[in-house]
Structure formats: structure tokens, C-alpha cells
From TrEMBL:
Organism lineage string: Bacteria, Bacillati, Actinomycetota, Actinomycetes, Mycobacteriales
Coiled-coil intervals, chain numbering: none
Organism: Mycolicibacterium septicum
Family the UniProt entry places it in: Belongs to the NtaA/SnaA/DszA monooxygenase family.
EC number: 1.14.-.-
InterPro entries reported for this sequence: Diverse_substr_monoxygenases, Luciferase-like_dom, Luciferase-like_sf, NTA_MOA
Annotated keywords: Flavoprotein, FMN, Monooxygenase, Oxidoreductase
Record-given protein name: NtaA/DmoA family FMN-dependent monooxygenase
Gene3D superfamilies the UniProt entry points to: Luciferase-like domain (3.20.20.30)
NCBIfam families referenced in this protein's UniProt entry, alphabetically: FMN_nitrolo (TIGR03860)
Protein origin, superkingdom: Bacteria
Domain Luciferase-like stretches: 28-283
GO molecular function terms noted in the UniProt entry: monooxygenase activity
């Protein structure tokens, strides 16, 4: 049976997405401390074991606070190249910024990951948001969104041309040789002669994913991507996103439905819903809320004082997404996700919003609290709607919660017939 009839579950391998109480929770539960790189390799092992379609590694190209909450993990392509040697099946999707990289260099690095992993590599193209990171790359300031996406579009044109203009060919003498053609790209921003001197893997080139949910981001996704990392907190918003993406795909001459949106999801699970809620409360108990409160809206450049953590959230002060789409800092889709989440919950407190936006991990992505059976029902409902290809899962409490998911939820999903029961052995691109 082809993989596409199954849900795609990717394992997000970034400790930055952990619940803010996860480190305290691990320590209290007697989980031994591991080095940052050991934790990355552990994600790899879980990736194969849980039959995940891919490991999905985000990238933050700069320091976000010292001490670093995530322990300072290796750069994604380097990390995944190492992980490729310890895994057999799981896809390996690395994030890198089109704003800060040079396309020829990135084409080489990703093609190398693709070789090392025998066709399991993917590239998540992002344009990056934190203004100060630009200062690490000889820029006086961050490019605005329009400029970033113009660059992303030309960047991906170059990347694909470099990857496509090469082949391994079996010659009449029986030997396989690597051939590649120049691309002679002369664009507004890039001048690249080519050819790329790295031979293709068995999937030809890495899968291209995209993350960035504004209109300009969706346009770039529609032109270049084969998978999109999104933020949809309800089935209704997933349907709306799908319609928007499908229209953009048609404008690009591509078939509607040909690019699966994959929203982020943070599961909090237990044998019963009550147990899951208790676990979440236990994790919450390790968080110091007041110091992280300013980041809840500050990450979007929205200045609403949130001094009293127990007060009702000032909903009336929150700007409507359409009014701030052009000016918002950080990820527009994440703001829309948070905005909708708040509108759907009249009477939420400041602490609830801080928990949703930053404390409980995974940015503003949907948090699911429920039993093992509940999450299988939830996945089945989203799957049957047909508006998403699956989920990028971010596990709140790290290794323990991934283990629990693999032991308890994966067998239930297989029984339900919506998840593969054997490892995927096809190249990553063919799985989507
Ligand atoms: C789900 C999601 C994940 C993202 N992951 C990253 C990342 O790992 N690194 C990064 O630099 N930017 C990341 N971004 C930021 C986007 O590339 C983009 O710069 C940002 O979302 C602003 O564009 P937008 O308004 O079109 O969303 C992510 C965006 C989304 C929606």
C-alpha cells in the first residue's frame, strides 16, 4: 500500500520546543542528563523506532539567551549527517535560512547529506525572523519580509537548477559516471555558473519543504515546496489554509492537493485524559512564569504589558492578524494560531496565554491533552478531512514522552489503519 494513504508523522528534533518545565521534570524523574549531541542522536533512534516519516530539525541561527534553554545543539545539516549513520529509514529534514546562506554552498551541503543518507534528505526553506541574527551575517539589519521572500524565490530557483542539472549515467563500457551541466544563472541577487560537483542520491535531489505562512510565504511554497510546515490549531483553520495553498498551487500551474500541509502538534498524553492533564500540570509546576511572560507577545513585536500573570488576558488590545501581517515580527502563521486560540477561549488568563505561546513548548502550535485513544481519534478525524498530510510532532517532556508515544499510540494508529506498520524504505521524496 502506498505511504500516501497513511498519516505522515515527523519527529521534530529540537529541544527548544520542549515544555519550559521539561528539564526540571526530567531531573525529578531521575532521567540521566545527556549531552546535547547525545540527545540529538536519541531523536534519531526514536525516528526509526517510531516509523516516523522524517526527523524535522528547525534551525535558529543565533543565540537566544544565555544560558541556552536547548543546550546549544549542532547545526542541523551537520547533526543530521551524523544521525544518518545511526539510522536506516527515517527521513532527515534540515532547516536552513535562505536569507543567510549562499545557494551554491547550501546546495553542496544538502546534496552531501542526501548522499550520506542514501536519499533520505530534505530541506526546509525558511527566511528567518529574529532581527539580531542578521548581525551575524555581515548585514546591517534584517531584510524585510518582501525582500526575504524575493531572495528565497531566486535562491530556490538556483538550488533546484544546481540539483537538477546533474546525473549518474551508466556508460556503454559498463561504468557509472557523474555528469553535470552549468546552470549559468544570472539573476537579480545571485550569479551562479554551476555545475554542482556533488553526485545525486537515489532520490535525485533532497525533498523541499517550506515554513512561513504569510501570503508571500505561501506563494514561495506553492512554487517550490513538496511539503509545508504550518500552524493550524483547528480542523477548520486547516481547511482554510488548504484552500489558500491550493489556489496558490493552481496559480503556479501545479495540481491542487499536491503539497501536503503538515501542522505542528504538541501531545500531552496519559492512559486517561485526567492522567494527561495531571502530567501537564506537573510540568507546569517546574516553570517560573513571570520572567517568560513578556516573550508571549514580544516574539511578535506586539507590546501589551502582561505584568499580572493571574489577570484575565486583555483580548480587546490584541491586534487582528490582517492589520499586522505586514509589520509583525516572527512567524505570521504562529501569530494567527495564537490569535485564534485566544478568540476561541473567552475568559483566558494571562498565564493561559503565556503557557500556550511559550511555556508549554512548540511555539504557538496546537497542544493536545488527552488519552492515547483520544489522540488516535483526533488523528483519524484530521486524516479523514484530508486537509493535512500529517503532523510535525514536538514532544513536550522529551525522551519519556516520545517513548510513551511509540509504545502506546503508534500501535493504536496501526490498528486503526492510518499509520504504516513497517519502516519506509523508499527515498524521502517518494514518500510524500
Ligand atoms: C512552522 C514554522 C517553522 C519555522 N521554523 C523556522 C526555523 O526553524 N528557523 C528559522 O529561521 N525560521 C523559521 N520559521 C520562520 C519562517 O521562515 C519565516 O521567516 C517567518 O515565518 C516569517 O514569515 P511568514 O510571516 O511568512 O510566516 C518558521 C516558520 C514557521 C511557520
Amino acid at each position: 500500500m502506498p505511504d500516501r494513504r497513511y498519516l505522515h508523522l515527523n519527529l521534530v528534533a529540537n529541544d527548544i520546543n520542549l515544555h519550559q518545565g521539561a528539564h526540571g521534570y526530567e531531573q525529578a524523574s531521575g532521567v540521566p542528563e545527556r549531552s546535547t549531541f547525545e540527545r540529538l542522536l536519541e531523536y534519531g533512534t526514536f525516528g526509526d523506532e517510531g516509523l516516523f516519516t522524517a526527523l524535522f530539525v528547525g534551525d535558529i541561527p543565533g543565540m537566544q539567551g544565555s544560558p541556552a534553554f536547548d543546550g546549544g545543539p549542532a547545526e542541523p545539516i551537520t547533526a543530521l549527517t551524523a544521525i544518518s549513520q545511526h539510522t536506516k529509514h527515517v527521513g532527515l529534514i534540515a532547516t536552513a535560512s535562505t536569507t543567510f546562506y549562499d545557494p551554491y554552498n547550501l546546495a553542496r551541503l544538502l546534496a552531501s547529506l542526501d548522499q550520506a543518507s542514501d536519499g533520505r534528505a530534505g530541506y526546509n526553506a525558511v527566511t528567518s525572523v529574529i532581527d539580531d541574527f542578521a548581525l551575524n551575517y555581515s548585514l546591517a539589519k534584517h531584510l524585510d519580509r518582501e525582500q526575504r521572500y524575493q531572495r528565497a524565490d531566486e535562491f530556490l530557483d538556483v538550488l533546484r537548477a544546481l540539483w537538477d542539472n546533474r546525473e549518474l549515467r551508466r556508460d556503454p563500457d559498463g561504468r557509472t559516471r557523474f555528469y553535470a551541466e552549468p546552470i549559468n544563472h544570472r539573476g537579480k541577487l545571485f550569479q551562479v555558473a554551476g555545475p554542482l560537483n556533488i553526485a545525486p542520491s537515489r532520490q535525485g535531489r533532497p525533498l523541499i519543504a517550506q515554513a512561513g505562512g504569510s501570503g508571500a510565504g505561501i506563494k514561495v511554497a506553492a512554487k517550490h515546496a513538496e511539503m509545508v510546515f504550518t500552524n493550524s490549531s483547528t480542523r477548520e483553520s486547516a481547511a482554510v489554509y488548504r484552500e489558500t495553498l491550493d489556489k496558490a498551487l493552481v496559480d503556479e500551474g501545479r495540481a491542487p492537493g499536491s503539497v501536503p500541509p503538515i501542522p505542528g502538534l504538541i501531545p500531552y498524553l496519559g492512559r486517561t485524559a485526567k492522567e494527561a492533564e495531571e502530567k501537564l500540570r506537573e510540568l507546569d509546576g517546574y516553570v517560573d512564569w513571570a520572567p517568560i511572560a513578556p516573550f508571549a507577545l514580544g516574539q511578535f513585536g506586539i507590546d501589551i504589558p502582561l505584568d499580572d500573570i493571574t489577570a484575565p488576558f486583555p483580548v480587546e488590545a490584541l491586534p487582528v492578524p490582517a492589520d499586522v501581517e505586514k509589520t509583525i515580527k516572527s512567524t505570521f502563521g504562529n501569530y494567527v494560531g495564537l490569535y485564534n486560540w485566544i478568540q476561541e477561549r473567552p475568559g483566558v488568563t494571562v498565564r493561559d496565554v503565556v503557557a500556550q505561546a511559550v511555556g508549554r513548548g512548540g511555539a504557538t502550535h496546537r497542544k493536545f491533552v488527552g488519552s492515547y485513544d483520544d489522540i488516535v481519534d483526533d488523528f483519524a478525524a484530521w486524516h479523514s478531512d484530508g486537509n493535512v498530510g500529517g503532523f510535525n510532532l514536538m514532544f513536550s517532556a522529551g525522551a519519556q514522552s516520545i517513548r510513551e508515544f511509540i509504545d502506546e499510540v503508534v500501535p493504536r494508529l496501526i490498528d486503526r489503519g492510518i499509520y504504516r506498520s513497517t519502516p519506509a524504505d523508499r527515498p524521502l521524496r517518494e514518500r510524500f
